[in-house]
Design a protein that fits this description.
The complex is a heterodimer of chains A (643) and B (227).
Chain A (H helix, E strand, L loop, with lengths): L9 H13 L24 E7 L3 H4 L3 H11 L4 E7 L3 H10 L17 E5 L6 H11 L14 E5 L15 E3 L3 H17 L4 H8 L5 E2 L4 E6 L11 E6 L8 E2 L27 E4 L1 E2 L10 H4 L4 E2 L2 H15 L3 E5 L9 H12 L5 E3 L7 H11 L5 E7 L3 H6 L6 H14 L3 E8 L6 H20 L10 E8 L16 H13 L6 E5 L2 H11 L4 H11 L13 H11 L3 H6 L13 E2 L4 H12 L17 H5 L12 H4 L1
Parallel strand pairs in A: 1-2, 1-3, 3-4, 4-5, 9-19, 10-13, 13-14, 15-16, 16-17, 17-18
Antiparallel strand pairs in A: 5-6, 7-8, 11-12
Chain B lengths: L4 E9 L8 H15 L15 E3 L7 E12 L5 H10 L5 E9 L6 H4 L2 E9 L4 H18 L1 E8 L2 E8 L4 E9 L3 E9 L8 H9 L7 E11 L3
Parallel strand pairs in B: 3-10
Antiparallel strand pairs in B: 1-3, 1-4, 2-3, 5-9, 5-10, 6-7, 8-9
Helix pairs in contact in B: 1-2, 4-5
The chains are: A alpha/beta (643), B alpha+beta (227).
The structure holds iron/sulfur cluster.
């Protein structure tokens, strides 16, 4: 510093070019897409940031959070923000052989030369990818080994609500929504760095920014886990080392969501992405309160954009990208208070243009199907519904708020509207689950299958495709089930047998999601800093791209677990004590522990809690603690009242 | 409906975008047309798509100084204006250069322009003249042989196929020495019989060299009419 101008590093690109020619999907490594920010646009910038997604380009480029933050940071003339992704394994091998460092997409600047490296933390199974990324970038894995010349490495995203397993690899974490926070941190870092402040001084100052957690300013001690033998490690809990460092870091949240730009500057990739279409975020937060769901707790409260804002963002977004499909995204888009009206307006606009609108998820009831019909028009692929549990008792226990009647109405309505393919999602291994609940999945699916067939008009072939996908429950921090363990291996095997036995021999396609990854995910989700060693050892044993089924290496994790005293299977099943400090007790999403405990109690009693965005407050604590409130466009009304 | 108007767009592919696949180029150019807001015609039926046709595929890694696409328009728009709008909607390295109308019944692009003129650049750390000679030798040897072998994959099965130069290689390579590189030019004919891929042709020659030269750029300089 001061750097004056940024330019493309042609030398480095020229070294990459022969590698790019040899690997799968070269377009992952090209950048220069329509909408990406070129150095020529940033002649006044002197601070260099890079946003990172720890997976391949096609997965990361589809991430909406990165798109929004890229736009926010680049909107400031002093900051030039680029992107970087983890290369696929073929490219990693080639880069290591040629000793080439990981570089940004826009200018091919080595990642280690940036000021700000912001890594998205999407899910636990990306943990080893983060180490692979740092290592390929030539950045010291451990924050404590970095020097004054190294960038500050930041992390943000869902995992930041329990950042402890990754704490030693990051200089700081951003808790909550990043639109304002990322920019504040970047500008503060820039100012202090230019004034000659040391890394240590800067981090100390950053720790005073609301929503920033600097792990090195906390000390940890071990908490024993009931039921584990003494040679196994417990989890760590953290406390600040200094008086000026907050014992509790509370998430950042933007109340005036509708005033944020609905359409960030958009990058149109050359290669096909997982979601190759325009995405417009129509609301934030989901307060349905499913007790296993972390997203339903950490993104509260509910805030909706107005129909006008959304429709003009869709029109402008399609025109400036050239896409012909838009997805109206959020955790529960069909709960938007004016969704029906919005879909009708969009359909009128799109009529005869070949453009279409899609919804990422469906509510399980007649209204959900009505909305799906509005979105799908004549194109009817499969309809996906997630009842999650097989019996009413279990659905009430997880607060799914779906009755068998809702499900039947949805399926029959869908068949009448022309759908013939269905996919149903369920979970097993939920706290309090019995054999009867597991067998209830098959029984329910049989009834669904029969009802769907019966709903087909007589003059049409009686063909229904029903796929049932079952996964293992994974306890997550900040949820009412955060204290619960998974079920042991022998018990899983037993329940899978019960599950299989409950399904007919043919007709329904039953798919079981492999449980080994779920165990690792559960351990990391609820781990403390002791898991850093586990992640590092697993990575050294060859684990990476753990979310890619064919790359997942369970042996690498199990061996690492044994070596580090964090054995995967034992840790995944252990229950944490209510009332004890947890690894993430110093991080808050605003939902109070008292609420989570009462929800857990209600789960045991199979009692439900209504969605507060449709009715009265259920005292989760977010609104009081963060001085925010639900804000919907019009009053949300339950479907019974609407139909 | 009338047949509409057939606008031919010439565009270049430069720099890193030489590594786009043919399919990616097609999709990207279609999006350029959409963003430019040209009044393109769509096919009828269940899922309507843009009426657009492209020229012969480029190998991945090759850039171009002039590719073509034909897009059918519902209404006439001045070609110069169309070009301006396309240029504003295009990524810098995938830039439209020229627009003109052709008869709706005119031949397809690959029939109109069956010849490709290629330019390859080899970088050189040592003596340029020496490398030029080595390249000339290698290509000479290959030409003598008269064909290259390419592996065709069909599912799991692999088949080795001979692609003869006869009828496909129209102008044999000509070399020139520049400051720190050697530039080579040659031209090919892409008929129905399976074209000679320039990248495979070069690879085959480089494989004959004791220290292979390093290919740093391959560009289609021109798509040409016959004769
Ligand atoms: S505090 Fe009340 S109104 Fe606010 S999100 Fe929680 S339950 Fe809903």
């Amino acid at each position: 510093m001061p750097k004056t101008r940024f330019a493309v590093n042609d030398d480095l690109w020229n070294q990459f070019a022969p590698l790019v020619a040899r690997v799968e999907k070269p377009s992952r490594y090209l950048g220069q897409e329509w909408g990406s920010v070129e150095p020529s646009e940033k002649s006044d910038a002197d601070y260099h940031a890079v946003l990172v997604y720890p997976d391949t380009y096609e997965i990361g480029q589809a991430n909406q959070a990165i798109a929004v933050l890229y736009d926010c940071l680049n909107a400031n003339e002093r900051i030039y923000c680029e992107r970087a992704y983890l290369p696929w394994v073929d490219m990693i091998t080639a880069m290591r052989a040629s000793k080439l460092p990981l570089a940004s997409l826009e200018t091919y600047t080595p990642v280690c030369d940036f000021d700000f490296v912001g890594i998205t933390l999407p899910h636990e199974m990306a943990s080893t990818n983060i180490l692979e990324f740092l290592d390929l970038s030539g950045i010291a894995l451990h924050a404590c080994d970095r020097t004054e010349d190294d960038p500050l490495v930041f992390g943000g995203g869902p995992l930041a609500y329990n950042p402890e397993p990754l704490a030693s690899f990051f200089d700081a974490f951003f808790i909550g929504e990043g639109e304002e926070l990322d920019l504040e941190v970047a500008l503060l870092h820039r100012r202090m760095k230019q004034a000659g402040a040391s890394r240590e001084q800067i981090l100390r100052e950053l720790s005073h920014v609301e929503g920033v957690y600097v792990p090195s300013l906390y000390e940890t001690h071990d908490q024993r886990i009931e039921g584990l033998s003494s040679e196994m490690r417990g989890y760590t809990v953290a406390q600040p080392r200094f008086d000026d460092v907050s014992p509790r870091v509370v998430k950042r949240v933007i109340q005036e969501f509708d005033t944020l730009k609905a359409l960030p500057r958009l990058i149109v990739p050359y290669s096909e992405l997982v979601h190759d279409r325009l995405a417009v975020e129509i609301l934030r937060g989901c307060n349905r309160g499913c007790r296993f769901c972390q997203a339903g707790m950490i993104y509260r409260p509910v805030r909706e954009r107005s129909a006008d804002t959304i429709i003009s963002a869709v029109a402008e977004g399609l025109a400036c990208t050239g896409y012909d499909e838009v997805s109206l995204t959020s955790l529960s888009s069909t709960d938007h208070s004016t969704i029906g009206q919005m879909l009708r307006r969009l359909n009128t606009r799109f009529y005869g243009t070949g453009k279409s609108v899609s919804l990422p998820s469906q509510r399980v009831d007649a209204l959900g199907v009505e909305l799906a019909r509005l979105a799908a028009g004549e194109k009817k692929g499969g309809l996906t519904l997630a009842p999650e549990a097989g019996t009413q008792r279990m659905r009430d226990s997880i607060n799914k708020g779906v009755t068998e009647d809702d499900l039947m109405q949805a399926v029959i309505g869908a068949v009448e509207a022309g759908w013939r393919g269905f996919k149903l999602y369920f979970m097993i291994g939920l706290p309090g689950e019995t054999d009867e609940d597991v067998a209830g999945i098959g029984a329910l699916c049989k009834r669904v299958y029969r009802a769907a067939k019966d709903a087909i008009p007589d003059d049409q072939p009686r063909n229904i495709r029903l796929t049932v996908s079952v996964a293992l429950f994974i306890p997550k921090p900040c949820t009412p089930f955060q204290w619960d363990g998974q079920i042991p291996l022998e018990e899983i095997q037993h329940r899978i047998e019960v599950l299989r036995g409950s399904f007919p021999k043919k007709g329904i396609d039953l798919r079981w999601h492999d449980s080994a990854t779920s165990y690792v995910e559960a351990v990391l989700a609820r781990g403390g800093r002791e898991c850093a060693e586990l992640i590092e050892q697993a990575w050294k044993n060859g684990a990476r791209f753990d979310a890619w089924t064919e790359q997942f290496n369970f042996d690498a994790w199990q061996q690492a677990g044994q070596a580090c005293g964090v054995p995967i299977m034992q840790r995944a099943v252990c229950e944490y004590e209510e009332g004890a400090l947890l690894p993430w007790s110093h991080i808050s999403c605003g939902v109070s522990e008292a609420f989570l405990r009462s929800e857990r109690q209600k789960a045991h009693e199979a009692m439900t809690t209504p969605d507060c965005s449709f009715g009265p407050c259920s005292q989760c604590g977010v609104c009081q603690d963060l001085h925010v409130h639900n804000s919907t466009q019009v009053k949300r009304v339950l479907p019974e009242a609407r139909l | 409906m009338s047949d509409g108007f057939r606008l031919r767009v010439k565009y270049e592919i430069r720099g890193r975008l030489a590594y786009l696949s043919h399919l990616e180029t097609i999709r990207s150019m279609e999006r350029v047309v959409r963003r430019a807001g040209l009044p393109f015609a769509v096919t009828e039926g269940f899922s309507p798509h843009m009426k657009v046709a492209f020229g012969p595929a480029l190998p991945v890694g090759a850039g171009s100084a002039g590719e073509y696409l034909d897009v059918r328009l519902q209404s006439y728009i001045d070609a110069e204006r169309a070009l301006e709008r396309l240029q504003l909607a295009a990524p810098r390295n995938l830039m439209p250069l020229e627009c003109f109308y052709v008869d709706v019944r005119a031949d397809a692009i690959d029939v109109t322009y069956p010849l490709s003129l290629w330019e390859a650049e080899f970088s050189c750390d040592g003596d340029v003249r020496e490398m030029l000679e080595a390249l000339r030798c290698a290509f000479g040897e290959l030409l003598e042989k008269g064909y290259i072998e390419v592996i065709k994959r069909k599912g799991r099965a692999e088949k080795v196929k001979q692609v003869a130069f006869e009828g496909r290689l129209i102008e044999a390579p000509v070399f020139s020495a520049e400051d720190t590189c050697v530039v080579m030019r040659f031209s090919t004919f892409q008929g129905n019989e399976g074209a000679l891929r320039p990248d495979k042709f070069i690879d085959a020659a480089l494989a004959l060299m004791s220290t292979p030269a390093r290919l740093v750029r391959l560009t289609r300089q021109e798509l040409r009419e016959n004769g």
